[in-house]
Amino acid sequence: MANRAGQLKRDKYYFVEDGAADATSIVIIKPAPGTWTIRTLTGSPAVVGVSEAPVQPYPSAAGRVLGQGSSRTLEYAVESDPSHKLTFFERGGAYEQELGTASGRPCLQNAAIQGRRPSNSYMAHPRITCGVIPFTPAPGPAGVRDIVAVVTNNGEPVREFKVASYTVGAEALPSRPSNLRIVRSGNERRDHLEPVGGRR
Fold first, then answer.
1. What are the CB-based long-range contacts (under 8 Å, 24+) for 116-121?
2. Are 121 and 115 a contacting pair, CB within 8 Å?
3. Average pLDDT of 101-120?
4. Separation between Cα atoms, residue 196 and residue 88, nearest integer Å
5. What residues does CATH 2.60.40 cover in the chain?
6. What is the pLDDT of residue 90?
7. Of 13, 28, 131, 167, whose CB neighbour count within 10 A is largest?
8. For residue 121, is it left (φ>0), alpha (ψ between -120 and 50) or beta?
9. CATH classification code of 62-168
10. Looking at residue 122, what is its pLDDT?
11. Residue 25, pLDDT score
């Protein structure tokens, strides 16, 4: 818990003091490359140690949907780090379904996946994986559907972005039922339909 409010200079830096730990945390926005030197002001306590922690960018991904009809496959490439989890969803106007979590194998950085990664996708030690997720499109109207990636950290969602889009045709209507039988017995009525195309 900081013992007083931190100091902020927009687009430059932010720092906050922690009296309990005798430490000051500093975040520098877009630091210039090169060597940085820490100097103390007159009357300041001596600096006994310095540590740094890199800021990891959010995961990025690109993908494409292959197949047709009810048999589809999402091919994806993901650049991430172990602290983030990335889950894919198919999303339409009033519905969505979860497709699966990115858990592929290491792949080449120039994997043949359509799509453009966000501008902040660079990492000092990238972990790029490729994978496939078979799925059946959710029931719904014909049109364009989006594949959306939801990023979570420790179970909490932190961002989402579109990975790919694909088009779904209208659902085929079942054919006319055959062998329809209606049986009456007193006040009871029983209907029997033969299944059509696997539907009942």
1. 116/62, 117/60, 117/61, 117/62, 117/79, 118/58, 118/60, 118/161, 120/57, 120/58, 120/60, 121/57, 121/60, 121/79
2. no
3. 59
4. 33
5. 62-168
6. 96
7. 131
8. alpha
9. 2.60.40
10. 40
11. 78
